[in-house]
Specification:
The chain contains 3 helices and 4 strands. By secondary structure, the chain is an alpha+beta fold. It has a single domain (about 5-115), classed as Nucleotidyltransferase, domain 5 (2-Layer Sandwich), CATH 3.30.420.100. Strands 3-2-1-4 form a 4-stranded mixed β-sheet. Helix 2 runs parallel beside helix 3 (about 105-115).
């Protein structure tokens, strides 16, 4: 493994010791790859994923490429997660940045979720 990945995994473990999702306020976990961004809302008590969203194109729809910059797509993912959580009646979550720095696409996703009405 390279040093950058080792550092992220070390930070991820440190964050996960402090951040845990419950039924009342589940954990919003964000993963950023070079090309896409993914978000999951997890209830750690029941060990279930409640909601997930990503900017990856769906193969069934026939889409080959998603339009917009990576930051714009992160904003859309934040809005999708918020909309799905509101449908389930969840308003408050705990944010898990998954070892990534809170800047760029991670911050854009979090800010769009906050402006859409999610509390964390």
């Amino acid at each position: 493994m390279n040093k950058k990945l080792e550092k992220r995994i070390r930070l991820k473990k440190k964050i996960r010791t402090k951040v845990s999702g419950t039924e009342v306020s589940p954990r919003l976990s964000v993963f950023r790859s070079n090309q896409y961004i993914y978000a999951q809302v997890i209830d750690d008590g029941a060990k279930k994923t409640l909601v997930s969203a990503s900017d990856m194109p769906v193969k069934k729809a026939g889409a080959t490429k998603v339009k917009g910059s990576k930051t714009e797509r992160a904003i859309l993912v934040g809005e999708q997660v918020t909309k799905a959580l509101k449908a389930k009646g969840i308003k408050k979550v705990v944010f898990d940045r998954n070892g990534f720095k809170y800047t760029g696409r991670i911050k854009a996703l979090a800010d769009s979720a906050r402006t859409s009405g999610l509390e964390f």
